[in-house]
Amino acid sequence: MTRHDSKITVVGGGAIGGIVAARLARAGVPVSLLARGAHLDAIKRNGLSVIDGDDRYVIDLHATDLPDTLGVQDLLFICLKGPALTAAAASLKPLVGPGTHIVSVMNGVPWWYLHEFGGALAGQRLESVDPAGAVSAVLPPSQASGCVVHISSSIAEPGVIRKGHGNELIIGPGSARLADRAANAIELLRRARFDVVASNDIRRDIWVKLWGNMTMNPISAITRSTGDVILDDPLTKELVVAVMEEARRIGKAIGIELTMTTDARNALTRKLGAFKTSMLQDVEAGRQLEIEAILGAPCEIASKAGIPAPFLSVLYGLVGQLNANLVRRT
Q1: Judging by DSSP bridges, how do beta strands 144-150 and 168-173 pair with one another?
Q2: For the sheet containing 160-163, what is the strand order?
Q3: Which of 18, 41, 161, 242 would give a disulfide with 311, using CB separation of 3.0 to 4.6 Å?
Q4: What is the dihedral of CA 216, 219, 222, 223, to 10 degrees?
Q5: What is the mean pLDDT of the chain?
Q6: In the prediction, which pLDDT does 327 show?
Q7: pLDDT tens, 114-153?
């Protein structure tokens, strides 16, 4: 069971981190939130507001942009996008001790993915998501577990989170030694009224979600099309399937078997209707894109494993140019 005096911080107060922090605090779990900018200012001034269907509430919680004021934590939920984590990693050092359990609540391949996993690639560092080891130096892979998010959420305005569809989190330990710590995190999030699935193979669950994200996200960002349009067009659907089959082979090379057909996986995507992916929303808002965890890391794994991935590489290159243009404009 989680101790009542445990120190818990959610790193990243955005769409998902804000929901996690607000729900935990509402459930009576003492939690701090590491946020920044206008969003942080609004939270400090008015509390963190959540709009969840007809349920609207305001939570007063400790929010700051100064990690060194919080001290070493027992549990960290890392709810940052890849580029933000790389930029912020060094500043998180005061939060992490040898007993800190780190749960990555992120899209795509996390920095710890190949720790004690991956066959011939086990133990290798992924430069795409851990450049020069900047992330793993502060957030040790041996202390990390994973969380796959099936929740849509957005920042309606500074200090206000609007929760959309879904309520599921899939959590599993990064190694067997963390099983009890992962169980504690699951307990906390269930208290916070999330539908939490305990995973015994979190890397596979991460790859299964990525299987859809690595196609729909970049194609939608490049074309500005919603998911239904991408799958209704024979040519873009053909590209989707080609990338997914490459991803199946990449996964198999590191020990992940995907038994679902591409048609079955795309049928799940179709159920979302005319949805805008997170990457398309970032393009429209002029924000930096989350590329490396979704495309860069799979490409890097393919290269290390000697698996050809020409279609995935093309998508990676195209969306990289799109992101460079967005960055230059900001």
Answers
A1: antiparallel
A2: 55-59, 48-52, 160-163, 153-157
A3: 242
A4: -100
A5: 94
A6: 82
A7: 999 999 999 999 999 999 999 999 999 999 999 999 988 8
The answer to whether the beta carbons of residues 289 and 322 sit under 8 Å apart is: yes
In whole angstroms, give the CA distance from residue 298 to residue 206.
12
Q: Report the C-alpha gap between 42 and 8 in whole angstroms.
A: 22
Grouping H, G, I as helix, E, B as strand and the rest as coil, residue 287 is: coil
d(CA 321, CA 278): 18
Catalytic residue among 7, 93, 209, 276: 209
In the chain the domains, ranked by start, together with CATH numbers, are 8-200 (3.40.50.720), 204-329 (1.10.1040.10)
For the stretch 259-314, pLDDT in tens is 999 999 999 888 888 888 889 988 998 889 999 999 999 999 999 999 999 999 99
Q: Which neighbouring-strand residues pair with 11?
A: 34, 78
pTM, to two decimals? 0.94
| Active site (annotated) includes residue 209 | yes
- Per the listing, tokens 């859809």 go with 212
Tokens of 59: 């939570």
Structure tokens at 159: 């200090």
**No. of helices (H) and no. of strands (E), the chain:** 11, 12
